[in-house]
Amino acid sequence: MTTGYFVTGTDTGIGKTTVSCALLRAFAAQGKSVIGMKPIAAGRENGQWMDVERLLAASNVVVSRQHVNPYAFDPSISPHIAAQQMGAGIDLTVIHQAYRELCKHAEVVIVEGAGGFLVPVNNDQTGADLAQVLNLPVILVVGMRLGCLNHALLTAQAIRAAGLALAGWVANGIDPGMMAVAENIDTLRQRMLCPLLGILPFCGETDSQQIAGLVNTQLLTNFTA
Ligand SMILES: Nc1ncnc2c1ncn2[C@@H]1O[C@H](COP(=O)(O)OP(=O)(O)OP(=O)(O)O)[C@@H](O)[C@H]1O
Ligand SMILES: [Mg+2]
Q1: pLDDT (0 to 100) of residue 207
Q2: CATH for 153
Q3: Is residue 202 part of a domain?
Q4: Considering the domain boundaries, does residue 110 fall inside one?
Q5: How many whole angstroms separate alpha carbon 82 and alpha carbon 86?
Q6: Is any ligand 1 atom within 6 A of the Cβ of residue 173?
Q7: How remote is the CA of residue 16 from the centroid of ligand 1, in Å?
Q8: End-to-end alpha-carbon separation of the chain, Å?
Q9: Mutate to test the pocket of ligand 1, among 6, 10, 17 (most ligand atoms within 8 A of CB)
Q10: Which domain holds residue 93?
């Protein structure tokens, strides 16, 4: 039986891939077979979709890239616009099918969403629909910077309104200049109503091997099969 998690964030560029890789390495260190999935990637750099590369590097099972990343777009823009520009559509059933394939090969599958939780993926669906279709508990990465309290609480509300479990959250120190970080974390600790899985400091070189030790997967035990 595979355990899956959907990793979302308070915004784009706040550490979803970083935390997803840390989770993959933490589960792998427990002897589990793990695969990272990036269903929708937008933004090609030097011929590569870096999120997909990073997730593949943190996975310990070899699987088809098509299943890891069914949709990839060149421009770094919202997926529904990127898809429209290419005359393509994003079909969540295709992603669900790919996820099911990955589940045949690993004990843990970590699915990284695109952008924030409610980012549109096509004309009438968002990242919330994707998490619902996959029916996964959600891990929220909070990029610690001014404004994150509102973004974190709004996102937590949206996740629960979608009928999904909020399995935990991670405080990611993306802004070395942020003031009152500890007080902000304490505020969220009191209001998120789910476990704080880890506090990642700002680190110039985000080494997911090192930060894997800072994410406590044991707090996710309620959700493991
Ligand atoms: N704790 C941290 N300390 C320093 N830099 C960080 C930290 N976490 C993430 N970063 C850096 O911030 C950038 C964005 O991180 P990451 O790619 O993990 O975000 P993301 O939410 O996955 O972005 P996207 O929305 O593009 O998928 C990367 O360059 C990453 O190395
Ligand atoms: Mg990412």
Answers
A1: 65
A2: 3.40.50.300
A3: yes
A4: no
A5: 6
A6: yes
A7: 7
A8: 7
A9: 17
A10: 3-103+116-223
Give the residue ranges of DSSP H helices in the chain.
16-29, 50-58, 65-68, 79-85, 92-103, 127-134, 148-161, 181-191, 208-212
Determine if ligand 1 sits within 6 Å of the CB of residue 20: no
Closest CA to 199 of 137, 143, 117, 150: 143
Instruction: Spell out the per-residue pLDDT of the chain, length 225, in tens.
Output: 899 999 999 999 999 999 999 999 999 999 999 999 999 999 999 999 999 999 999 999 999 999 999 999 999 999 999 999 988 899 999 999 999 999 999 999 999 999 999 999 999 999 999 999 999 999 999 999 999 999 999 999 999 999 999 999 999 999 999 999 999 999 999 999 999 999 999 987 656 677 888 999 999 976 654
Domain presence at residue 111: no
| 153 domain-assigned | yes
Is 51 near ligand 1, meaning CB less than 6 Å away? yes
**Residue 1 C-alpha to ligand 1 middle, in angstroms?**
30
* Interatomic CA distance for residues 71 and 95, integer angstroms: 8
Please give the tally of structural domains in the chain. 1
The owner of tokens 């952008």 is 115
Please give the number of the atom of ligand 1 that sits closest to the Cα of 54. 17
| Residue nearest ligand 1's atom 15 by CA | 15
Catalytic residue flag (residue 104): no
- The pTM of the full predicted model, rounded to 2 decimals, is 0.97
